[in-house]
Design brief:
Blueprint: H1 8-17, E1 32-34, H2 41-49, E2 52-54, H3 56-63
Parallel strand pairs: 1-2
């Protein structure tokens, strides 16, 4: 899904500046999934694996 105020590239850059490794897929080793509107298969996979799903607001607080 899309994030309300950030593009994927902007969100990726912010996460990387904060020291995160950004992956294009979800696995059991994933720490967080940032989910926006109409989150789809990655959010479903995160839920199945017990990976924490956070909002854009929570993401922005983490990277501030």
């Amino acid at each position: 899904g899309s994030l309300p105020t950030l593009s994927r590239d902007a969100a990726k850059a912010m996460a990387e500046r904060a020291g995160a490794k950004v992956a294009s897929s979800v696995s059991a080793k994933t720490d967080y999934v940032v989910a926006g509107e109409d989150a789809g298969s990655k959010m479903k996979k995160a839920n199945e694996l017990g990976v924490e799903v956070i909002s854009e607001d929570a993401f922005l607080q983490m990277t501030a």
